[in-house]
Structure formats: structure tokens, C-alpha cells
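Researcher: Please generate the 3D structure of the following complex. Treat every line as part of one assembly.
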Amino acid sequence: MAEIRKSEGLIDWLDQRLAVKAFMRVMMTEYWIPKNINFLWAMGVVLVVLFGVLLVTGLLLLMYYKPDINLAFDSVNYTIMQEVEYGWLWRHMHGVAASATFLIIYIHLFTGIYYGSYKKGREMIWITGMVLFIAFSAEAFSGYMLPWGQMSYWAAQVITNLFSGIPVIGDDVVIWIRGDYVVADATLTRFFMLHVVLLPLVIIVVIAVHFYSLRFPHVNNQDSEELNFDVEAKKFLDGRKKESKVVPFWPVFLSKDFFVVGAFMTFFFLLCCYHFDFAMDPINFEPANSMKTPAHIYPEWYFLWNYEVLRGFFFDIAGIAAMDIGLIAFVIANIVFMVLPFLDRNPMNTAPAHKRPLFKYWFWILVVDMIVLTVYGKLPPTGVNAWVGFFAAIIFLGLFIALPFITKHEAKGDVQ
Amino acid sequence: MRELKILAIVIFFTAVTYWGVEPYAHSQMHPHVAPADFNFKDIQPLALNGNNENGKTLVEANCIACHSIKSLGLEAPMSNDDAASAYGVVPPDLSHAGVIYDKNYLAGFLKDPVNATKLSHKFGDTKPYAMPSYSFLSDQEIADIVAYLKNVVATKPTDKMVFEEACGRCHSMKYDSFKAQTSSTFMKNYLGAEAPDLSMMIRSKKAEYLTPFINEPLKMVEGIAMPRVGLTAASQEQVIAYMENVGDRKKAEREDLGLKLIGFMAIFTLIAYAWKVRIWKEVA
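Model: Done. Output below.
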């Protein structure tokens, strides 16, 4: 047992019992981050802030929300939006933060791909990140159902129905997920449970693992330069701060992040108060009506690329039903990013994309293709739109088939 | 410099995606429609000046057997439910009809209600419209009725009054505790569809859509049961203002608070930047 003496103050008292000083050193003042980074490295902290916004506003909304198909719509649109003081603000912040989270997740994800931060010891960071992406997707989908508007209902109907494509047990799985033969009260209450308890717990745990997995391989830098963190940290602690290639997480790294977070949150509140339709689709302000199918059913913007991969295969190929091909492609699209570190056959080359002769084209084609998929995922799938979606989906899958060959080829070039 | 270049790239791709899924996708899903026509060009304009006295006689002889004019103390002869079961729908109160509805529209409506409301796909010889045609009246007599209806309006109706008279026979406004005069079971028989509650319609359809829609529903939605009611531009604005007042009651607070939140975060950002510069001076 540690030697306990009369404390010199609160901090000392806590330090004797919880080792708070050592903890702060490990987590903050001697947690070393490379100096050679740009603002894209602040996206993680922006995401933490957004998750905090979602958590706090979510708790406030939870005080008035009623998970019952007869009460949900009015509890959101009347009680929260009109009766409760600033209820509208919490709801707008919650809805916009959900959308903004995905925007930042995509930037974070593409940053990781561009700078090769998914390989050479960083695989677990990448994989836990992709688990977070899936958990956030489930969280967003379940949350979108709660206001029980038209798109809540119809998106739930369409998306839960996808599971019927699973061979043999598909139809039973759909009923098991819905808790009823159709999307109904049982579906709403179980998705409510997922949204407010189970998934947030999972997300918090995986965030912790995601951060933890960052400690050993360390944060990457702009030029993927291999740093000896012990040597660089010593330089910093010895006062050769300008010479050292690392900075402590607190206060140096976070001082920059605070600025980035501030700039982003300024934009965030602009969206919250004046430009929220992209995140809070007007059609969902219409109460759910099982008798009235909306003219256009589409998911939120951040699921569109995925949805278009599913929808892109609109005709039977070689006797396989279009629906089945689409579903297989959809499943692949959902997990393919997870295995990215293993599809890259040039695992030792972590140079940023602009320094890699073939990978840079692969990267930018991927970005453009996913934007094309996103846009065409929303457009009505008729005429030429259906074909654009089809080819974009083929390119998307083709990119991941091509990746091992491209990177292998590059690896050979490295040797020469 | 490099950071700004990266920022420009991020903004560019974000903006393209936004443009694609919002303005562009919506322009594809909801093709452009002609703006609202408040001149009701398809209806022959009323050229004659009406005689108020004669209008009074005509209204008393022809209208008040079914319609109330509450501002004059003329109550409806039947309860709402009795009227709805007799006619299919509760006949509108005429207290402000003379100013709420366009005068050419009113004249056209009196002569040929089904044509004016654009409900020929719902009503005809087999299922006659509740309001009979007064085409047997002369143009002068029609003008007299219109003149009288305008003359009885003493004060400008409030936004809510316009809504109740023009929309409230069929539509409820739950969030303002207003129930449609015709109950929903009658509505279903009458038009084959329940008229939706309009509490959140301002958020789900937006004023930009509602403007041409209320002016001429059939133009916007094929086969829709909602009639063209012939509101003037001013009274339609009142209806939309009322809908906004109920469905988006916190709009003013939102737009006011927005500036403060943005201002707060902008100041936070400036201070954070100054702090960052100070901290990084030591290390870079």
C-alpha cells in the first residue's frame, strides 16, 4: 500500500489515492503527438465534441420523448419543439450533430486512407474506427425512426426488409428485428432501446478502445515519417521544444484543436438555426402513415452511397436476381473498408497518397465515385440515372478488387 | 498555406456533395412548376359593378339556407355534423368570403363550382357537388352577390380567421386545438380521403411549396381531392403565416438565438486562435 501522508491540498490528496498526476502525464502532458500534422488531425477531437453534443442533447430530449407510435410524433414536434423551453434547440442540435458527425467521420476516414494511417501497426486503429462507423450508422438509423415521421416509418420498412434477402432464415429475421410482421409499435420501442442504451454503450466502449489502440503505434504525421517518440519526447522535455518533432497532447496539440473545434462549431450553429433541412428532412415532419407511400424513399445523405450500391444492380445478371446481387454488393460495401489494411499489399509503404504513383489515382477515383454514388442514391433511379448508379457501383467494387494488384505493383516499384 | 489548400479541397468536395443531394436532387424529384396564379386566368373576369342592395336580397334568398354569416349574427341552420351528413361537407361561413376569395374566382365559382374548384375528377352528374351551380343568375346578379359579400366585411380577418373559413371546414390544426368542422368520417365519404392535420405542414412542405399548392392543388398533385379555394394573394399569405405561427412557432427565437450562438462561437474561435498562436510560438 502506498504511503499516505497529510495532504498539501486537494490535488495532492487525490494524487495519493488515484495517482492523478501520473494519469495526467500519461493522458495529457506527456502524450506525444507529431508536430508535422495539419488540421485534418483535429477531426478526432471534433468528433469527440460532436459526440458530447449528441449525448447531452440526447439526454435532454429523452426527458420528454415518448416511445409509442401514438405519442412519439407529437412528443417530438409539439412537446419538445414548441412547449419545452429551448426544446427546439436541443432537437435541432441533435439532428444536425448526427449529420455533421458523419461528415466528419468521412473526412476522418479519407484522411486515414490518404495518409496510409490504416497500416503498418495501425490496423487496430482502423478496424476499431470502422466498428465505430458501423455502430454510429446503427445509432443514426435507429434514431431516425424515433420521431415517427413518414421517412422514419418508410425507411425502417425498406431497410429492415433488406434482411429478408438472407437465405433460408431471411423472413424470420425480419420479423425478429421488427418484433411484428410490419414496422409497428414493437419496432419503435426496441429501436428506442437500441438508440438510447445499447448502441451508446457500445459506442463509448469502442471509442475507448479506438483511443487506446492509438497509444502504441502513435499518431501518424503528414509525411508518414518514422519518429522515435522516446528521443523526440526527451528533446521536448529538455526544453529543445522547437527542435523536437513531437508536442504534448495538452496543451499544444489541443490548443490547435480548440481553434478547429471553434471554427467548426461556428459553422455548426449556422446550420442548426438557419440551414437544417439537409439533416432534418422536411418529409419527416409528416406523421408516419402506413397507407401512404412517399413518392421518393431515400435514406439520410450519409447512407446514400451504400444504398446506391444496393440499388445500382437493377437487372438480373446470369440468372441471379437483381435484388440478390444488390444485397451481396451492399454487404460487401459495408465491410470492405474494414479489411482495407489487408487488401493493401504494400503494407510497409505509408507515404501519403500524393507520393504513391498508383494509389493516388485509386484514392481520388474512390472519393469521386463515392460522391457520385451519394448523389445518384438520392435521385430517382430512372433512365440514365439507373445506369450511372450501376456503373458507379461496379467501379466501387472494382476499386477494391483492384487495390491488392495496384499496391502489389507499387511494392515492386519500391524495391527497384 | 498547405492547410488552406487542404481546407479548400475539403470544402469543395463537401459542397459538391451537398449540392448533389440537396438542391440538385430536389430539383429532379420536384420538377419546376409555374408560379401561383392569383389572377385565376382561366376564369372569365367579372366586368360589372355590383349593386350592394340587390346583392343582399339575392344572398338572403339563395345562400343563407345553407351558409352562416356569423359576423351579421346569421347562424348556420344546422349543426356541423347534420350539415356534413346532409351535404357531405360543412358549408363555409361567409363572414369574410368577400375579401378572402378573389372576386373573379367567386363569380366563376357561383356560376360553375366544380370547374372553379377544379374538382371535375371528383364530382359530376353521378356525384353532384354540394354547392349547386348558379349559372341561371345573370352576370349582373352574380356581380351583386360578390359586391354584397365584400360589403359585409367590416374588419380585416385575422390570420386564424382566414384559415378557419378557407381551410378549417376540412383540415384540423391539432397544435392550435382547432378541429375541422367536418369530422373525418364525413370527409372520407366526401372526397375519398381524410384531409391531413395541418399543424406541421409548414415544416414538411415549406412555404415555397405551399404557395403554388394552395393556389392550385391539382397542378401539384395528380388526382388530389383538395379543391382550388380561390384565395387572394394576401389571404393566402395570411393562411401561410398562421400555419407558420402554429407549426414553426419558435422560428423567431431560433433566428435570433442563432446569431448569438454564432457570435459566441466566433469569439471562442478568435480566443482559441490567439491562445494557439501563443502556445505554438514556443514549439514551432
